[in-house]
C-alpha cells in the first residue's frame, strides 16, 4: 500500500535542508538575539539572514518583514493592527465571506468594538469581484483584506486590481498569502498591497513561525507588547530555530517555483480522473486556481467520512480548512459560494506537494472510486 500525502494546505513536511539550518540554534548557538555578546550575536545573525530570505521570496525589503508565530497571528496583526492605527481616519472595513477564520474572526471582534465591516459575497467559483469591492468603499473605509488564494477551493483573487481600486480611494490593502506562497509567484510590488501574511509550515518550514510584510512607513498597533523586538512591532523573544528554518524554506521555495508546470500537469490529471466519478463536481475556479490544488463536492458522501476512509488506504487528503475541520461539518466557504448545506459537507480537497508523483496520483484515482462507492452504499445522503 502506498502512502500518499495530499493535504499540503494543512501542513507540509519539514525539508531536510530546513532541519539542518535549524539545528545549530537548538543547541550550540542558543543565545537570545537581544544580547550583545557572541551567542546573542549568532542568534541575531540567524534572524536577520532569515528576514532577508523571506523578503527576497516576495520582493520586499528586509525591514518590511515582521516575524510572528504563525500565519494566523500575521492575519490578526495586519487586520487589527492597521485598523487601530488608522482609526481616526475611519472605522469602516471590508473583507470577503471566504477568508481564513483568523481573518474573519478578527473582523468580527472589531465589529464588537464599533467598527463597521462589510463581508463581501463571492461567486459560485469563489471569486471576490473587484466591482463589488469598489461599490463597498465609503469615505470612512480604511482597510480591505482579501486573500490571494483560498485554502479550500484554490481560487485565485484579483488582488492587484482590488489594490489599485483601493489606493485610488486612499484605502489600505492586506492579503493573506499563506496558501499561495511557495506554490506560485508572490510579489508585493506586482500585487501592490500594503500588508501580506505568510506562514512557514505550509512551505516545508517548521510550525511556529510566520511573517507579516508591512510596507515601509506604515503605522501598526502591536498585538503583543514587550521590548524592542521586531522594532517594537511584535514583542517576545524570537523563536530563533523556527525563524531560521522559515528563512531557509523561503530560499528553497524560490527554486521550487520552477516546477509549477509539473504540478499543474499532475493536478489536471487528478481533476480529470476524479470528475469521471458519478456525482462529483469541481469546486473553485476551473482555471484561476492554485497549481497544486484540486477540490470537489462528492455527492452523497460526508467529507470527514471520506477523509478517514481514504486514510485507511494510505491516502491523506482534506475536507476543509484545518483550523475548523474538527468543529464544522458544512464548509463555510462552500456555503458562502452558494452550495446548500447537504453538499457543503461533502467536500474533498487534494493538495499536491513538491514530491508528489504520477504513480501516487494514479493510485488515488484507482482507490477513490472504490472508497466513494463503499461509502455511498451506506450513506443516507446518496440518492444516485
How would you describe this protein?
It contains 13 helices and twelve strands. The two termini are 30 Å apart. It folds into two domains: 129 residues, Aspartate Aminotransferase, domain 1; 240 residues, Type I PLP-dependent aspartate aminotransferase-like (Major domain) (Aspartate Aminotransferase, domain 2, 3-Layer(aba) Sandwich), CATH 3.40.640.10. Helix 3 runs parallel beside helix 4. By secondary structure, it is an alpha/beta fold.
Keywords for this entry:
384 residues; alpha/beta; Aspartate Aminotransferase, domain 1; Aspartate Aminotransferase, domain 2; three-stranded antiparallel sheet
Short description:
The chain has 384 residues and is of the alpha/beta class. It has 2 domains: 129 residues, Aspartate Aminotransferase, domain 1, CATH 3.90.1150; 240 residues, Type I PLP-dependent aspartate aminotransferase-like (Major domain) (Aspartate Aminotransferase, domain 2, 3-Layer(aba) Sandwich).
List SSEs in N-to-C order. EHHEHEHEHEHEHEEHHEEHEHHEH
Q: What distance separates the N and C termini?
A: 30 Å
Radius of gyration: 21 Å
Q: What percentage of amino acids are in beta strands? A: 5-15%
Write the CATH fold name of the largest domain. Aspartate Aminotransferase, domain 2
The pLDDT mean sits at 94
What number of structural domains do the residues give? Answer: 2
Q: Class by helix and strand content?
A: alpha/beta
- Please tally the helical runs, counting DSSP H or I stretches of 4 or more residues: 13
Which superfamily, in CATH terms, is the homologous superfamily of the largest domain? Type I PLP-dependent aspartate aminotransferase-like (Major domain)
Amino acid at each position: 500500500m502506498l502512502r500518499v500525502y495530499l493535504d499540503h494546505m494543512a501542513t507540509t513536511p519539514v525539508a531536510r535542508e530546513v532541519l539542518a539550518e535549524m539545528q545549530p540554534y537548538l543547541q550550540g548557538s542558543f543565545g537570545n538575539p537581544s544580547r550583545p555578546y557572541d551567542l546573542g550575536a549568532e542568534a541575531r545573525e540567524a534572524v536577520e539572514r532569515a528576514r532577508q530570505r523571506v523578503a527576497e521570496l516576495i520582493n520586499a525589503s528586509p525591514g518590511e518583514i515582521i516575524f510572528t508565530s504563525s500565519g494566523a497571528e500575521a492575519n490578526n496583526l495586519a487586520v487589527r493592527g492597521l485598523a487601530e492605527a488608522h482609526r481616526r481616519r475611519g472605522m469602516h472595513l471590508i473583507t470577503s465571506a471566504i477568508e481564513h477564520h483568523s481573518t474573519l474572526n478578527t473582523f468580527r471582534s472589531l465589529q464588537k468594538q464599533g467598527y463597521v465591516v462589510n463581508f463581501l459575497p463571492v461567486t459560485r467559483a469563489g471569486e471576490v469581484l473587484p466591482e463589488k469591492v469598489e461599490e463597498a468603499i465609503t469615505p470612512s473605509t480604511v482597510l480591505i483584506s482579501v486573500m490571494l488564494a483560498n485554502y479550500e477551493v484554490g481560487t485565485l483573487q484579483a488582488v492587484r486590481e482590488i489594490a489599485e481600486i483601493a489606493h485610488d480611494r486612499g484605502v489600505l490593502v492586506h492579503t493573506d498569502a499563506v496558501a499561495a506562497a511557495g506554490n506560485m509567484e508572490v510579489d508585493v510590488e506586482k500585487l501592490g498591497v500594503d500588508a501580506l501574511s505568510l506562514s512557514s509550515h505550509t512551505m516545508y518550514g517548521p510550525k511556529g513561525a510566520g511573517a507579516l510584510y508591512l510596507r515601509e512607513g506604515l503605522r501598526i498597533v502591536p498585538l503583543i507588547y514587550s521590548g524592542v523586538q521586531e522594532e517594537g512591532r511584535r514583542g517576545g523573544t524570537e523563536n530563533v530555530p523556527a525563524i531560521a528554518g522559515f528563512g531557509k524554506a523561503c530560499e528553497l521555495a524560490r527554486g521550487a517555483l520552477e516546477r509549477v508546470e509539473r504540478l499543474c500537469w499532475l493536478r489536471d490529471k487528478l481533476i480529470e480522473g476524479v470528475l469521471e466519478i458519478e456525482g462529483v463536481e469541481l469546486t473553485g475556479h476551473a482555471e484561476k486556481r492554485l497549481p497544486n490544488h484540486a477540490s470537489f463536492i462528492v455527492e452523497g458522501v460526508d467529507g470527514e467520512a471520506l477523509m478517514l476512509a481514504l486514510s485507511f488506504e494510505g491516502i491523506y487528503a482534506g475536507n476543509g480548512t484545518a483550523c475548523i475541520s474538527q468543529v464544522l461539518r458544512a464548509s463555510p466557504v462552500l456555503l458562502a459560494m452558494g452550495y446548500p448545506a447537504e453538499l457543503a459537507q461533502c467536500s474533498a480537497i487534494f493538495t499536491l506537494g513538491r514530491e508528489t508523483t504520477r504513480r501516487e496520483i494514479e493510485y488515488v484515482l484507482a482507490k477513490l472510486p472504490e472508497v466513494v462507492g463503499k461509502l455511498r452504499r451506506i450513506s443516507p445522503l446518496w440518492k444516485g
